[in-house]
Every structure is written in C-alpha cells, then in structure tokens.
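Notes from hallway chat w/ T.B., transcribed later so I don't forget. T.B. wanted the structure written out for a chain they're using in a teaching module, and asked if we could keep both sequence and structure tokens in one place. Agreed to drop them here.
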Amino acid sequence: MIDFVHVTRRFGKVVAVNDLCLSIGRGELFAFLGPNGAGKTTTIKMLVGLLQPTAGRVLVGGFDVGQHTRECAQLMGYVPDQPFLYEKLSGREFLEFVAQIRGMSRQETERAIREQAERFELVGFLDDLVETYSHGMRQRTVFAAALLHRPPILVVDEPMVGLDPKSTRMVKDLLCDWARQGGVVFMSIHTLSIAEEIATRIGIIHRGQLLFDGTVEELRRQMAAPDESLESMFLQLTLEERAAQGPVTAREAS
C-alpha cells in the first residue's frame, strides 16, 4: 500500500532523507523511529503530499503521490504532530468541514461523525467551541477527522504527545485494531516502549539513512542482544552510527 522508491529529499546542502527504499503492506502497524532531526517528519510530509521528493517516487495504493495527489489523499487519514483546529468552530462544525473537503454526502457525514464521536468519547462536547478543548480532546478530534472517510491507510506523527493514560490506551487500541482489520498504520513515535508494545514492524532512520527495517525480534538477532529492550538497542545503533560518521556539521531537517 505504501512504497518509497529510492526517495531523497534535500534542503539546500542538507540531505534530510537519503535514498529511502521502504514498502508497507496491509495489516502492518509500522513504527518509524529516529532521533530528532533524523528525517521522520520529512518522510511523512512526502508521504502525505506536503513535500515533493528531490529524487525518487512515493506511491500510495499504486498511485504516485506527486502526480495523483487527490487519489492518494482519499486513501489516507493524516494526524500531524501538532493538532490544528479552527478555534471558533465547534467540534461538529470542524468535522463537517473536513467531510465537505472529502466530498462526503450529508448522510455519510452524519453517520461518520456519530460513529467517530462515540469511538473517541466526544459526544458530549461536539457542539462546544474548539477553543475550550483540552489538548487531549483536540488530539481525539483530529483522529476523528482523519477517520471520517474510513481510509485504508492511517498516517500518524507522534500520536501520544500530551495524552493522558486513558487517551493513550484508546489510541493504542485504535491503531492495533486498524492494522488487525487489514488497514495500514504508518506511525512516527519517540516513545520506544509503545513502539515495542504495539508495532508489528519498525524502521530506524538516522541522519536521513534507514539503518534497520524489520521486527523487534529481528533487530535483537541482528545485534545479538536477545534480552535487550528496543530502547537499549535503538540507542546503541544510533550512537554507533553517529560515532562512525563523525560529528554533525549541519543542522538536519526533521
């Protein structure tokens, strides 16, 4: 469903993503990991069409994101790292606005809003202004908006930031269920314990280069570390790579 084919993205002289080759299929919950500035957010922005690759192609459902933006957008729901909502709209008005952008009918919109409001426990707050929402409620509303059109692919950038334990559990269950039902989840996350808990597969990127792609167990075998946590292996892998490449000489794009 998602294919990065020799994708490179440069910002001036800085190579944010370097020759990325990666394929993710149905039923996978893929966790994309890396230090700050590794290239995770740049990769996600290319996936959802907010940035164009300098070289290579990004494919979603067989469509080239650069050439078939509308078709690709219909296949994806996107939750950015900073939830953005219109402060002077109610939650319901915001969801209706998103549904209109998606070309949904009135009947489809009403059904979808009812369904997502129940899923994310927003029923009692839908007609309140967004400016009154807590961070957790905003995050849940953005998730609801991303799922209105029932996309097969869910792209989420740091979904757990600022969430309380109950909301975190809700989001983890949602992502796992999405993958189990045959969907695709592409998730960037810094909380390695959560990635280890729920991801079916991980990718580790550092300085724009993909260092590892596989399961946590495969990483343990590769590093001959059968009892190590993902956090421990991640730190060892990225620190070794930094030491091998020498000091950073330019600020990398995230």
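Follow-up for T.B.: The two ends are 24 Å apart (CA to CA). Might be a good example for the class.
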